[in-house]
Amino acid sequence: MKDALEQATSGGGKVSRDWGAIAPAVLVFALLALGPLAAEAYGGAYLTSLLMRMMLLAIAAISLDLLIGQGGMVSFGHAAFIGLGAYVAGIMITEGAADLAMILPMAIVASTVFAVVTGAISLRTSGVYFIMITLAFGQMLFFTASSLSAYGGDDGLTLWERSTVFGFDLLSSNVTLYYLILVTLIGAYALVGALVGSRFGRVLRAAKENPTRVEALGFSVFSYRLTAYVIAGVMAGVAGVLMANQAEFVSPSTLAWQRSGELIIMVVLGGMGLRNGALLGAVALVALEETLSSITHDWRLIFGPLLVLTVLYAKTGLAGVADAWVARLWRRA
Amino acid sequence: MSSPILRLAGLHKSFGALVATDNVTLDLSPGECHALIGPNGAGKTTLIHQISGVLKPDAGRIFFAEQDVTDAAPHERAQLGMARSFQITSIIPGFTVLENVALAAQARSGSSFRFFGRAKAETALNDAAIQALTIVGLEARRDTVAGSLSHGEKRSLELAIALAMAPKALILDEPMAGMGREESARLITTLRELKSRVPILLVEHDMEAVFALADRVSVLVYGRVIASGAPEEIRADPEVRSAYLGEDAA
Amino acid sequence: MSTTLLLIQLLNGLQLGVLLFLIAAGLTLVFGVMGFINLAHGVQYMVGAYLAVAFYGVTEHFLAAMVLALLAALAIGLALEFLVFRRLYHRDHLDQVLATFGVILFLNQAAKTIFGPTPLILPTPEWLDGSFLLVEGLLYPWYRIAVIVAGLAVAALLYVLVRHTKVGMLVRAGAANPQMVSALGVDIERLFMIVFGFGAMLAGFAGVLAAPIFSVEPGMGDDLLIVAFVVIIIGGIGSIKGAFIAALLVGLVDTLGRTLATDAMKLFFDVSSANQIGPALASMLIYILMAAVLFFRPTGLFPAKGMA
Q1: Helix C142-164 with C3-34: angle, nearest 10 deg
Q2: How many CB atoms are closer than 10 A to CB B85?
């Protein structure tokens, strides 16, 4: 125990502590990298597409944790950004502008505009009013999507091809798309990690705890929160673009309020504000849903009470548990 | 005589029928500690809120560092160099002591819209923070989580935060509130050394502290400044004695 | 657009508003008094509708089914309160959202498992079957009028209860200042249970009333719950009066919007664009209303709490 303390405070210990902090994520990424191989051997295309969906939701959950865990902004409308990205991709592919080099900038612009407008209004409120107004904006986009009769309306839009990348038809292969998604996920994880430790992240975290103090120091809390809102929105929008390509289908259910709720579950289940929380939460939730639904058609009868029990009795989230394990391992090593 | 850093000109603020600030004119000059005293309900907090920008005055102007800041937001005033402490301790409880103060230093050194690079590894910020912590005697506690400090230590941390903003003026709202005798004595010493470098507007109940520190004292009663002058003059002023010191001295 | 059609839409809007009020009333009280966000409040509405169908199957009598359904809805509400919700009152909003989301998943699935996924229908009671001549050439069903009357009657009853009884006084005080009420030595747990059970029963009542009009299916409460939240946010959390006014407002705006939006859009766009934009705008109207209200009054129209 004493050794561990000394090690933790010495220079060498700092490096191992940093590695320890991201060890669970590195493990998850390594396993995900083997996904296509495993699919070859066991699950086939189904496993690949399941893992892709898992990773895409993880990107969205990681971006949502920037808001909830770091910024204290409980957004109940985050799926709107996934939907925005997905519809930009879906519509552009349908209209023949299928290249990612065109779709991505367009999706980023659309997410930014939507985030700036709705964020600026939502951030006037706080607490439960913020939860509900973000939900309201999400619903507005949901109904907009439902009414796009030229693009499938309620029934959704089937895509007959995937995006090209600078003219090359790379993504029609599930394997390339898979690794593109994995790299994006790692990028999202690294980006949020960097943000949290940066000057910007420090202000954002401080404002979560005591906005009045941060304001009195000379920071405009509103600007920092709005910036975080835009960053998170754009990340989810990018996930949406990839999701449309993965599913080859876009529908209003991509941005239903239940999806936003699911993202919140991932963040909380994984451990709010923890380095690996949203990632582990997303992986665990998708895996759990998959396992339960393979056992019984009525899997929600089990999942619902499980969720209630988790909230009532598990306090730190999965990442908290994982961190404790890592710490124990370091101590032994 | 150098020009004042902070100047209030004819401030007026009322809430319905209640006049909380009634034609208040006062200033704070470099090198001095100007104390604002007054019985409960005299409108001290309302005045502080107007100075820091939380409330807007109905009439009158506020000048800080030769600029009219009457319509400026709190964070804009802070950027000009106005640092305040709160009557109720206001820190970031989940941050370490060092990070609390480093955040304040960060506010005064370049943009904080920097998204990469570890803020904790910025030596310039940490050095500035440690310097401020040394002044208030909290250097040894730098790695403690701020929320677990004792009440007195939190008050000191709050002062360190204000100092790390490299302020042009300190607005201290009852910095001694809830402190033990020994702790306030130490704080008085610190502030006395400090005031030559940073002018201080001090709102305080502790008369011992006020008379030990202040170069000038203004007395606020029912939102009006009824007297203003050197501490000895205030102590001798009959109007002040009856309105305020009378009950306190008893 | 003809005046008769407008009149019908007004009545339909009123009817939706009344149903929304029955749901929103419990929601706003539970939230105002206990600070508890209950997403599962919408399933109470579904539970009421299903129970009415089930008891009608047994009794073949509308009123008997209604009474039994109300009692059963009350029992289920209290059971949920006892098993789950009372452990959540002191948790933060996020925990409450999650746990009650879990309850929704469970009850929606349970409804599907027990009653099947196909929509059911509760027949209109015979003595309210049929329509009357609203104006020349237009019939309006008696049952829908009865819904409006019943809803308004409950609103009036609620008003009397909240204004003139001891429990009502505690509820109002609790919504404005919860600490004070517990400081007065009131048995807060019992008060919570009464408020909660009452709210659950009101939502169940809305479900029973709605059962002959809308189809009874799993998840039928989900979207209505979101609209009920819009209502209590617009009205100001914790305010019965606010919930009532906002419910009627939302009911009318939504119903009239769906009829008028497309025509209104034709003033600005060509017909095919208007046919596109109109329905989308109509669905969004209440959310736009809510965003606008929050923009100008960040705590709703009739905030019950002081600035805290």
Answers
A1: 30
A2: 20
Angle between helices C62-83 and C41-59 (to 10 degrees): 140
Of A157, A160, A191, A163, nearest to A176 by C-alpha is: A163
Q: Does the beta carbon of B147 lie under 8 angstroms from any beta carbon of chain A? A: no
CA A73 to chain centroid, in Å, comes to 15
Which residues from A are below 8 Å from C32, CB to CB?
none
Residue C133 has pLDDT above 80, yes or no: no
Q: Among A197, A203, A210, whose Cβ lies nearest the Cβ of B112?
A: A203
* Residue C274 placed within a domain: no
Q: In chain C, what residues touch A140 (CB-CB under 8 Å)?
A: 284, 287-288
Chain A: closest CA distance from residue C158 (Å): 25
Residues C99, A312: C-beta atoms closer than 8 Å? yes
The interface predicted TM-score (ipTM) is 0.83
What is the least distance, in Å, from the CA of C82 to any CA of chain A? 14
CA A209 to chain centroid, in Å, comes to: 23
Per the CATH hierarchy, to which homologous superfamily does domain B1-81+167-250 belong?
A: P-loop containing nucleotide triphosphate hydrolases (3.40.50.300)
In a domain, C4, yes or no: no
Task: State whether residue A203 sits within 8 Å of chain B by CB.
Answer: yes
Q: What residues of C are in contact with residue A68 (Cβ under 8 Å)?
A: 94
Q: Are C192 and C254 in contact (CB under 8 A)?
A: no
Helix H or strand E segment including B5: none
Nearest by CB: A218 against B75, B115, B116:
B75
Cα C236 to Cα C221: distance, rounded to the nearest angstrom: 22
**Chains C and B: 3 or more CB pairs within 8 Å of each other:** no
Number of domains making up chain C: 1
Instruction: Render A233-297 in DSSP notation, one character per residue.
Output: HHHHHHHHHHHHHHHTEE-GGGG-HHHHHHHHHHHHHH-TT-TTHHHHHHHHHHHHHHHHHHH-T
Pairwise CB contact (< 8 Å): B91 & A213: yes
Distance (Å, whole) CA C103 – CA A303? 10
Q: What residue spans define the domains of chain B?
A: 1-81+167-250, 91-166
C3 lies in some domain? no
Q: Is B52 within 8 Å of chain A by CB?
A: yes
Whole-model pTM: value is 0.85
A-chain CB neighbours of B73 within 8 Å are 215, 220
pLDDT single digits (tens) A274-329: 889 999 999 999 999 899 988 888 888 898 998 888 888 877 778 887 788 888 88
Range of the domain at C47: 9-217
Residues contacting residue A164 through CB under 8 Å, at least 6 positions apart: A98, A99, A100, A170, A171
Q: How far is C226 from chain A (nearest CA, A)?
A: 9
CA atoms within 13 A on the CB side of B29: 8
Average model confidence (pLDDT) for chain A? 87
Burial class from Cβ neighbours inside 10 Å (0-12, 13-18, 19+) for residue B196 reads: exposed
Helix (H, G, I), strand (E, B) or coil at C236: coil
pLDDT over threshold 50, residue A3: no
Nearest CA in chain C to A259: C101
With CA atoms as reference, report the closest residue to C186 among C200, C196, C197, C171: C171
Residue C266 falls inside a structural domain = no
Q: A325 to each of A28, A332, B64, B195, how far by Cα in Å? A: 15, 11, 54, 52
Residue A232, domain CATH: 1.10.3470
Coil, helix or strand for C122? Answer: coil
Write the DSSP symbol of residue B164: H
Tell me the pLDDT tens digit for each residue of A109-165.
Answer: 999 999 999 999 899 888 888 888 898 889 889 988 988 878 888 888 988 888 888
How many DSSP H helices and E strands does chain C contain? 11, 2
- The angle subtended at Cα B160 by Cα B154 and Cα B166, nearest 5°, is 155
